[in-house]
Here is the input.
Amino acid sequence: MADRFLRACRREPVDCTPVWFMRQAGRYLPEYQEVRAGHSILEVCKTPDLAVEVTLQPIRRFSVDAAIIFADILLPLEPMGLSLEFAAGEGPVIANPVRSAADVTALKPVRPEADLGFVLESISQARAALAGEVPLVGFAGAPFTLASYAIEGGGSRSYIRTKQLMYRDPEAWHDLVGRLADAVAGFLVAQVAAGAQAVQLFDSWVGALSPDDYAEYAHPYTQRIFAALADSGVPRIHFGTGASTLLPLMANAGCDVIGLDWRIPLDDGWAAAGHDIAVQGNLDPVVLFAPEHEIERRVLDVVKRADGRPGHIFNLGHGILPETPPEAVGFVADLVHRATRRAG
Amino acid sequence: MADRFLRACRREPVDCTPVWFMRQAGRYLPEYQEVRAGHSILEVCKTPDLAVEVTLQPIRRFSVDAAIIFADILLPLEPMGLSLEFAAGEGPVIANPVRSAADVTALKPVRPEADLGFVLESISQARAALAGEVPLVGFAGAPFTLASYAIEGGGSRSYIRTKQLMYRDPEAWHDLVGRLADAVAGFLVAQVAAGAQAVQLFDSWVGALSPDDYAEYAHPYTQRIFAALADSGVPRIHFGTGASTLLPLMANAGCDVIGLDWRIPLDDGWAAAGHDIAVQGNLDPVVLFAPEHEIERRVLDVVKRADGRPGHIFNLGHGILPETPPEAVGFVADLVHRATRRAG
Here is the structure.
């Protein structure tokens, strides 16, 4: 059923629980590795033919209920003036990170069509290529997570520089995340115009914040983004990791679906977020490395915790890890459908 | 008041809230760096004169209410047969990690006096040198966290190999954590015999587990350790990070004090753990990089959430970071005492 995923986002009844996987277009697939053998991540992102190809790869292989456009949350940082590279095995590196109020002021606004037109073109082409088989999800990074990369210059463990800017120069911080919110809001609106049928906002590292810091330094900017999408008509998914104590706040940021990681049982997480929104998750990605009987036990546990309530989208609690056996992904997709099939 | 810390561990009234800092003996202190200039971490651990010196350094500088012996949670892995090194800036590296049931079976039991006598000697000397000024805390790593290092061969982000052993060979996993529990239990009992007046069990990375996995694969082994200490008469502190959803389970593992990180407000965390145990925490370590007025606001918030209830020990939500300005540590220690001083 082609609209299973979108119906679940709206908490409408479905024939069986929809399933997709964060990072389903990625390094664990040999056909993705083949594309990447000749091209960097940024080249794939910036070449619609390639981006569409890797977007479609998991759709060809697995019975997933949504495609997610191949892109990277850090792409908007480049037109803002930051130099973005992906070092082999090292993750993203920004050579000229934001460290001061002056660095923030120097950032340029993002013009989605002019600056990130390649993503919009990829969305448009992927949407056409999918031909209604499954809906296409667009996405972006949330202001806190983007700011953490912009300030740290890459991944981080303790977010010292990020929080230093918050605590020492709150004005510069609010200026920075305000600019990021504007850039992301415009980018996501443009993604919907280009054909994205749902959007997911990744605040992957927001779990580094206390609830009070989240409320003060991150939440208003995420709200601004979701508000800009209110009239778009597409479901808005909000996802973070290690964010169990932030769920009530994150759920009221203006999203239609809250993404959970595995640190909170799905029923508890859904209750914390409120049953007036849908829920996405939340199998530990490492479970895909387990034997099938163990995968099955854990998938069925997640399904059971959803309790047949409309509005559950099955997913992992974080992205698929590069070392994941592809056959486990297919096994889970089929199992979720089989285990949740409604009579009728 | 020399017994302020121990009284708070037992939830007895105190003249003001006791305070100490995880990793208070560490790299942020220039006098520690001086000792380390000539000696590796392992050399300092294994030379009681040096270990005692760095244990005492923060006591000389700050008005903290407890000393914690300088050591490392990974020390028991060496006599078990694992080769332990600290690569510069890289953290611990284990060249022969545990990857199979056979690797587990080959592990040797730890004889605390013969294998880790240098820690016991350091405790005995530090206790004498402290001369009752403040109590001395001993510590060890919890089985899950130790197993994660033993299996991954160092730090990890996704704990793939650790969880793989759990999921693929649960028998080997239970054998491994059982051996680690026995080693740690014996080591902590010996630390108390040598003079430790409280013990803290660090399950630093247990927040990587779902509550169900924690209950099955970690909790019983932590319980075994605390049970072995039940007759010791010393307070048992239990600490993890990112473990908000595990708190009810962690709190009932047999500890007297639960350590909280900053991801959960202290009042919520204490309520989740239960008011029948004491609580330690929970300032974000990065707050020590903030201006004093901002540090003060956040310290007072933690104190306010403790609500004057006996049984709060002020601490950070994780260890002091190496880049921390030492004066911020002194400022917080004094502020906690001043802000919580009881009339009388």
Notes: The mean pLDDT of chain A is 97. Strands of chain A lie at 67-68, 84-87, 91-94, 136-141, 198-203, 236-240, 257-259, 278-283, 312-316. Chain A has one domain: 4-340. Chain A has 16 helices and nine strands.
